[in-house]
Amino acid sequence: MQSKQSEQSDIFPISAEFDSSIGDIIQKVGAEFGAIGEGFGPSDAEVTQMSHYYRLDNGWGYWVATLNGDVVGGGGIAPFNGSDSVCELRKLFLLPQSRGHGLGKRLAEQCLTYARQQGFRECYLDTLSTMTSAVRLYEALGFQHLSAPMPGTEHNGCDVWMLKQL
């Protein structure tokens, strides 16, 4: 679905002023899909200070998405378990009212572009099968399903694991 002409969207790197909004969105959307507690991304310690962890100068990146001036979500990339060759697409969450505007695709593409610029050769993600729109997006972007999580994943509550060659 294309954005309406009157709607304005933007994507930009996270800064401290957006930590609270993004943390709230990650928690809210996580709860919407049952991703609550240990083994799910919304419970990670970094959620309360995303800008502290996701700094473009350290190989981690997180981008904030706005729609009509409101913060509606974000998505990030980070090395997978400190790897130089494998990164992870992390915490790509959008509020319900912002879905269907192409923001998820734009966020994912921004993350993958950054990953390539950082020299990563593969991108891993884990998610939930109940996040059907997200899974379809990842498939459309070329992610392939794995039969099990990559060794070392922190999110053992997820039931979909995917990998993309960069």
From TrEMBL:
Residue ranges of every copy of the N-acetyltransferase domain listed in the record: 12-166
PANTHER family xref list: GNAT FAMILY N-ACETYLTRANSFERASE (PTHR13947), LD18367P (PTHR13947:SF37)
Superkingdom of origin: Bacteria
Record flagged with keyword Repressor: no
CDD domains the record matches: NAT_SF (cd04301)
GO molecular function, one term: N-acetyltransferase activity
Keyword set, alphabetical order: Transferase
Organism annotation: Vibrio ostreae
Signal peptide (from-to): none
InterPro entries assigned to the protein according to its UniProt record, in alphabetical order: GNAT_dom, NAT_camello-type
Protein name: GNAT family N-acetyltransferase
